[in-house]
Amino acid sequence: MSSYSQNRLKRAMELHRAGKLPEAEALYRSVIAADPNVAEAWQLLGLLHTQSSRPSEAVEFLRRAIALNPHAAHYYVNYANALRLTQQHDAAIAAARKAIDLRPTLPSGYNILGVIYRDQQELEKAITAFERAVQLAPDSPDGWANLGLVFVSADRFSEAIRPLQRALSTFANHAELHHAMGRALGGMGEQELALAEFEQARTLEPAMMEAYQSAAVILIYQRRLTEAIELLRNALQINPENGVTHANLANALNDQGYSDAAAVEYDKAVTLSPDVDWIASARCIACHYRADVDPKEIFWRHREWNRLHAEKVEQLPGIAPRTFTDRKLRIGYVSPDFRRHAVAFFLSPLVTDFDREALDVFCYSNSRKRSPDDEHTDLIRSGVTGWRDIATMSDDAGAQLIRDDQIDILVDLAGHTAFNRLRLFARKPAPIQMTYLGYPNTTGMPAIDYRITDAFADPPGISDELNVEKLLRLEDCAWCYRPIVQSPQVQPPPSQQNGFITFGSFNVAAKLNERTLHLWADVLERVPSSRFVFKAGVLNDANARKRITNFFASRKIHGDRIQFQSAFASLTDHLAYYSHVDIALDPFPYNGTTTTCDAMWMGVPVITLAGNTHVSRVGCSLLHAVGLDEMVADSSQQYLDIAAALAEDGERLKQIRGGLRDRMIRSPLGDVESFAKKLRDVYRAMMEKNIKPH
What we know:
Layout: H1 3-17, H2 21-34, H3 39-51, H4 55-68, H5 73-85, H6 89-102, H7 107-119, H8 123-136, H9 141-153, H10 157-170, H11 175-187, H12 191-204, H13 209-221, H14 225-238, H15 243-256, H16 259-272, H17 277-287, H18 295-309, E1 329-335, H19 348-351, E2 359-365, H20 375-383, E3 386-389, H21 395-404, E4 409-412, H22 422-425, E5 432-435, E6 450-454, E7 470-474, H23 495-498, E8 502-505, H24 514-526, E9 531-535, H25 542-554, E10 562-565, H26 571-576, E11 583-585, H27 594-601, E12 606-609, H28 618-625, E13 632-633, H29 636-648, H30 650-666, H31 672-690
Helix pairs in contact: 1-2, 2-3, 3-4, 3-5, 4-5, 5-6, 5-7, 6-7, 7-8, 8-9, 9-10, 9-11, 10-11, 11-12, 11-13, 12-13, 13-14, 13-15, 14-15, 15-16, 16-17, 17-18, 24-29
């Protein structure tokens, strides 16, 4: 290269470093025009094009540079980055690995490899690459930043703290790093520290939508719904077209009980973010809370979810059910709720009391909320054949793990609830797939073969056509209840001491739609001296309480007849609070399940209104199982009559309360051993039915 070209290249590099990219580009091109064999000019021109968001041109320039100097490792690093930006991921990985082969101690080679893997959501491979990068360059804040960010993406929150601290010591005003630190702290349960980090991120970058959303999610979890809603509305002032923000706003409104307003936001969210599966799932759930939604529309929502998020997923190669005459059946359960959770009250027949001579049981845990002291998780883990944590696995990796475990029947326990793995089921890792327990409707997915229910919650001929799955109706009852904590003693009816009847509902506020509240107001009018106690986690939120008090005020029912109680930290205290309730009232259309069983376990009778959908008939099933069919109403008028008659019969209330727990224990709802056998027999029958004769 001539001295003239050398000087022009030097000047071009100075301009490049100064950010004067058009001037630098012109000089690089002039050097190449004078001497097309100057590899460094091609390489720097390619780098400039990458920095100018022109990666396609950059690929060609860097390819020319490598042809001229195939031994320059940093050329391959920049080439890998340009290939990454043009979505040529396999070629990008090959280029990054070539850089590492040429210079095994080059930190940037591992860094770009980690970035490529991160883009591909191969997070464990990304972590390995970034860890090697910081080993080679421990003083590089960029390396620590990349490592911390990918730890957060992989939900490995405790491991993210140190790298993020190292990065923030240099990049103290980096909003993305503060947001990542907030996510890590939040994931570790340090919610107030997390909120402070999100606030710092918003201060540094006021338009950073993720910082608003992450803070709002924590506030919703803390039941500080009014604060969350204000934050989300502020975010929508910045960007009204952000679907995730609309979805989080919908969640907060729904939790407060404003289901109609929430429905509007869910529809906006799905329209704006049709590719985000959890948003469409949240809308599916929310449909059940409203009394005016046609069951056919709810079914269509679920089918639409399948069309958008599961139908095009590539399934694993088909596998036929294996004969099992000389072996145990291998059953897999997939859930985020193998912990202290409402679902856990019904898990005993599945994961602790199953027939160990006939079944091997594997749990695939997608839990992201387990606290270190959750002994219920430890109890389940110690009792099953195999425990697999899939929370940080991709759907493909999780499906392959299940296939490798040779699971015969895979059972979803979450449906469309939070942290479900329905897209994993879409890959069909097991020959027979079912859904059960955690969700009160169809998944909408043909990849799931069966839904377990009973003839009371899903009477034959009523709901079959509104389920994609074939309904497997268990005999007697589809649930089996066992408390997971020390149970308080049943107390006498509070009316004996109070001199008035106390009705109550411990259901979530989202179930308390206007039809339900009108029905309960009618009950209070029918029983003039009665009181009503509402208990729910969101009732520490002023607006959630205000909605209910305003409603009853509109019905001329004074506030002194209404009492609110928010959640207790202890499940034992939660159960003990039923001592304040004489009669529990079930909401409509979305009945209680765990709350109904809790009430009966504490001796409190429950009155339910039977509808024509699963969610509106769960109460019917549970009450039938314990022999309290007389508490099931077929009309609003009958509901009122049952409530009024029971309120007037103190002796009957006392009798029911004194014997209901024993009644439950002896009933199909409490007979864990029999239920476990019943479930085993269903699994065997479905295997036999699906095994093709040779």
